[in-house]
Design brief:
With about 130 residues, the protein is mainly alpha-helical. The chain has six helices and two strands.
Length: about 130
C-alpha cells in the first residue's frame, strides 16, 4: 500500500510539472547530431542594460544642459547638437539664426562644453533636480 501511495504521489507531482519547460531542454538535434535547445532558438541580443545606461546618461546630460548652462549657451548647444526635437545645425546655421558670427558661436559652444565636462568630472554621480 505504501509503495502504491508513493507511485501515485510521484505521478501527481509530475502532472504539476508537465506544463513547465526548461530553456535548456533538448527539442531536436542539428545536422552534426548536437542537441538543439529552446535557448538556441529563442536567443536574442539583449542590450537592455546598455539602452538603460544610455538613457540614464542622456537624461543626466540634458539636465546638466538645462541646469548648468546659461540661456545663450543652452540655446547654442541645443541647436548645434539637435537636442529635443531640433535637428543638429552647423555653426554657420546657428550664427545666422542668432545673428552673431560663426566664431562667436564656436567660442560659446567651446565654453559650454567645457562647463559640462567639468560638471561631470567634479560630480560624476551628481543628480540634477527636475
Amino acid at each position: 500500500m505504501r509503495i502504491a501511495n508513493e507511485i501515485l504521489m510521484f505521478f501527481r507531482s509530475q502532472k504539476k510539472l508537465s506544463c513547465e519547460v526548461s530553456i535548456n531542454e533538448t527539442i531536436d538535434v542539428d545536422r552534426d547530431g548536437n542537441p538543439l535547445t529552446y535557448g538556441d532558438i529563442v536567443y536574442t541580443e539583449d542590450n537592455a542594460l546598455e539602452e538603460l545606461d544610455m538613457r540614464i546618461h542622456t537624461e543626466r546630460a540634458l539636465l546638466a544642459v538645462r541646469d548648468v548652462l546659461d540661456e545663450r549657451e543652452r540655446q547654442i548647444i541645443v541647436l548645434r547638437y539637435g537636442l529635443g526635437k531640433h535637428p543638429p545645425k552647423t555653426q554657420r546655421e546657428v550664427a545666422a539664426m542668432l545673428h552673431i558670427s560663426r566664431s562667436y558661436v564656436s567660442r560659446i559652444e567651446k565654453k559650454a562644453l567645457l562647463r559640462l565636462r567639468r560638471c561631470f568630472k567634479d560630480a560624476p554621480e551628481l543628480h540634477f533636480e527636475n
